[in-house]
Design brief:
The chain is an alpha/beta fold. It folds into 2 domains: about 240 residues, Type I PLP-dependent aspartate aminotransferase-like (Major domain) (Aspartate Aminotransferase, domain 2); about 120 residues, Aspartate Aminotransferase, domain 1. It contains 13 helices and 15 strands. A 7-stranded mixed β-sheet has the order 1-9-8-5-4-2-3, sandwiched between helices. A hairpin with a 2-residue loop joins strand 10 and strand 11.
């Protein structure tokens, strides 16, 4: 069996090369390299895709969260609650605003921010909660909205891994005050470089973010507020506009692979498979299992040409960047246990059935050899 990569972006490009090359050529020929009509067209179409009023294209997903926080006036002396099990960019956006990051534990079934742990962390300084729709699984947004509304706390969605995911009949992105999306190349909707977007139903907030990303201006050389250079470039806007056409089919392909994994691995001892919920549609940016002997299994799969990942090996509250000198880190047992057990299996739209089958067979054989299962 040929090696199974964790994902194959080159194959995706080959499948849509003519359209993508044509879009790139149009940008070059028009010289619309920064912002411009290609970005604007994508913004309108992505907002419509998410079922929201506005989308604002920016430089990357970290900038998206940072600009939302900035536009809401969150800064020093404020606190923002977010899960310990996520990519560090969620926390970095808060730190960049000068606010204090408050880490909460995660739910053992969804791997997302745990509402009970979040509630315990709320203080008079709490100005925002950032649920992360991790791995493509929507967080329990209604629980966070119920926590936040009576207290005047903003709920900001980190949708960097959940393009097209659905919570109670509504796509993520329009559930909180605003959402930050990443279009990092490996995402369900990925650019060919860095890019991101803010999605919101608040027109005034979108207008302010649009100024903040572009030197604080509405008109050339007229700067109304101190701001930043965090714009989406035209090449990424044009590429994303092409790829958006295929996102629903790509998500369905991911879901089909996830079903194959679930159907054939559910009886393997020592494995815990991702859970799905009736009121949510998981888009499987990542297919993350828990396993008793994670490191030996990962080594076993690597020896058989199967690439895997760990998302994420160190919870954020234990990262050196967020350890406070002289102060012990908070005890977040679910996040800490997950970091020792989780393993991400290959999953991408172009993955062939025989590749997924090889992954299944290799894991099953590991269980037989190491645990004596099935003998």
């Amino acid at each position: 069996m040929k090696p199974v990569p964790f994902l194959d972006l080159g194959l995706q490009y080959q499948n849509h090369r003519a359209e993508i090359d044509r879009a790139i050529a149009e940008v070059i020929e028009s010289s619309a390299f920064i912002g411009g009509r290609f970005v604007e067209r994508f913004e309108k179409r992505f907002a419509s895709f998410c079922g929201a009023k506005r989308a604002v294209g920016v430089a990357n997903g970290t900038c998206a969260l940072f600009l939302i926080l900035q536009a809401l006036g969150i800064g020093p002396d404020d606190e923002v609650i977010l899960p310990a099990n996520t990519f560090i960019a969620t926390a970095e956006a808060v730190s960049a605003c000068g606010a204090r990051v408050v880490f909460a534990d995660v739910d053992p079934d969804s791997y997302n921010l745990d509402p009970a742990s979040c509630a315990a962390m709320i203080s008079p300084q709490t100005k925002a909660i950032i649920p992360v729709h991790l791995y493509g699984q929507p967080a329990d947004m209604e629980a966070f909205l119920q926590l936040a509304r009576p207290r005047g706390i903003a709920v900001i969605e980190d949708a960097a891994q959940a393009h097209g995911a659905i919570y109670r009949g509504q796509k993520v992105g329009g559930l909180g005050i605003a959402a930050g999306f990443s279009f990092y190349p490996g995402k369900n909707l990925g650019a060919y470089g860095d890019a991101g977007a803010i999605v919101t139903n608040d027109e005034a907030l979108a207008d302010r973010i649009a100024m903040l990303r572009d030197h604080g201006r509405k008109a050339k050389y007229l700067h109304e507020i101190p701001a930043y250079n965090m714009r989406m470039d035209g090449l990424q806007g044009a590429i994303l506009d092409v790829k958006l056409n295929y996102l629903p089919a790509w998500n369905q392909a991911r879901q089909q692979i996830a079903r194959r994994y679930a159907e054939q691995l559910h009886q393997v001892p020592g494995l815990i498979l991702p859970k799905t919920f009736k009121d949510r549609e998981h888009v499987f940016h990542l297919f993350v299992i828990q396993v008793d002997r994670r490191d030996p299994l990962q080594k076993w799969l690597k020896e058989r040409g199967i690439e895997t990942g760990i998302h994420y090996p160190v919870p954020l509250h234990l990262q050196p960047a967020y350890r406070l000198p002289g102060s012990p880190p908070p005890r977040l047992p679910v996040a800490e246990r997950l970091a020792e057990r989780i393993l991400s299996l290959p999953i991408y739209p172009e993955m062939k059935p025989e590749q997924a089958q090889w992954v299944v067979e290799a894991i099953t054989e590991f269980a037989r050899c190491s645990l004596g299962w099935g003998t």
